[in-house]
Write the structure tokens for this entry.
Amino acid sequence: MLTTIFYKPYFSTTFFNSKNLGLLMKNQEVADLLREIAEYLEITDVPFKPRAYQRAALVIETLAEPIEDIWKAGKLEDIPSVGEGIAKKIAEYLEKGKSAYLKKLKKELPIDADALLSVGGLGPKKVKILYKTLNIKNIEDLKKAAEQKKIRNIEGFGEKTENTILEGITFLQKTENRISLGFALPLAESLKDQLLASKRVHTAEIAGSLRRSKETIGDIDLLAASDNPKRAVEAFLTIAAPKALLGKGEKKCSVILTSGMQVDLRIVKREEFGAALQYFTGSKSHNIALRNKAIKKGYKLNEYGLFKRNKRIAGGTEDSIYKKLGMAFIPPEMRENLGEIQLAEKGSIPPLVKLKDIKGDFHTHTIYSDGRASIEEMIKKAESLGYSFIGISDHFGHLRIANAMDEQRIKKQWKEINAVQKKHPKIKIVKGAEVNINKDGSLDIPPAVLRSLDYAIISVHTNFKMGKQEMTKRICDAMEHENILVLGHPTGGMIGERKPYEVDFDEVVLAAKQHNIALEINSQSKRMDLASPLAKAAIEQGCRVSINTDAHYPDSLEFMRFGVGIARRAWAGKADIINAKELKQKS
Ligand code: DGT
Ligand code: CA
Ligand code: CA
Ligand code: ZN
């Protein structure tokens, strides 16, 4: 299972640049194909090969060039980690749109490997046993067998595993249709930009949970103002090229994109735009509370405006509505009916952290561990973002799959950092490491090396399955060590893939506060960890937060904005975020 942890989350933002939105789709398709092949090989117990396929998938998904171009130039084998065998399979897929090899693997092992492996607690070995003993081929079979208490009787499974499987299925069904903010936002922005460029609308805006920066999105809501709604809808349908049309009216439509994401578009009149934006931004409970405030004042509030008797008194802008209701403007991220309306009435909405407040990133990887770029490439990108510092935190220790560094390699890395630092004097490079928290709460790093770092990020990458108490003790014990700046991805969840491990979060917050360790908001698309409710709770307890990208590729440093959105949902101000301050000299 480790493989999925390290290879799945690193998604290049280049994939979603509007100019190559379509072109790089194939790269993702090919990466998905190779991963699926890897899964079948892993279940069939083929040695080494699965890892090779996974490596190739990771490389291809972050390529900035369309894979078809590379194939046409006959250069597939020039791609790092792509050998002759894998190149042949890619070529076949690009030529025919399918893979005979995968078909053969599926024939030999007729199960839905992808789905079964995404259930928490199930690895390749267990999937194989379940197939051999109970003929379990898909999630339905699995659920039925678990409910009928058949799984507990298989050797090596037991009642606990059976329950874990059932919980895993419930989790998947609850989350499978929600998409990470990190995937949905660039796509929605591209659609919005193209709609604006079509000149069929005056204005367009992203609404719904996406505008509120929620970590996962049910569907994309787009809103536009136009005098000719019918033509605006037609323009949108041409741009979106959906694979399915769920509904279409004079002023709206609802579609499913080829990526599977749902988009709702509504077209309104210019003078209604602010009211519609307010309404369709939600949240629903914020809107209900706001509508009640309006009623108390003798007004009526709906998606067309704020009305006194039947006269519209506000609605062109959101600002005008909040103002007429006697409130300060409420940032979309705060609109969850958690007390923000009362604050707005008192005029005391706190100033929230902004992307431009961010001075640097503490969590990044380079080719010294499992990153894809050199130290200098990462530094150059950080400089282009205007950062005053950047922390390099390659994995250290025994995590083989993450290509973790040992003492010799980290010393070599420091030399290179010193050299790069000389070439780039304007940005301060800090020497960090990401250290695995061992099962017993010790750290996978010799104390002397830990002390010689500028800082360490500690995180859980192994042994996710343990009791709540045990996990809490493990993490709190680990925080006792010196020189720790950040607890990385504190809950360990992966959106749509793995639920968070069990831990007493209040205890973690207390320990972090006591040792002056910041909790991370990891902005990697698959992680978004901490999510906003926990980040908010931590900040309320006086705990500090570090918003990091966990970038394994230069462009991934741009994931920072997702984390900032989550921090804003947590009502974070600049002072709550350790990387919204200049670096302190190490004492
Ligand atoms: P999602 O898509 O599940 O991540 O969450 P939202 O918040 O984007 O929800 P969605 O797409 O169903 O609706 C978009 C917004 O439209 C929602 O935030 C508030 C507004 N809205 C939708 N249905 C209702 C409703 O029945 N009453 C009120 N007051 N507002 C609604
Ligand atoms: Ca939505
Ligand atoms: Ca919607
Ligand atoms: Zn990392």
About this structure: The chain has 24 helices and 18 strands.
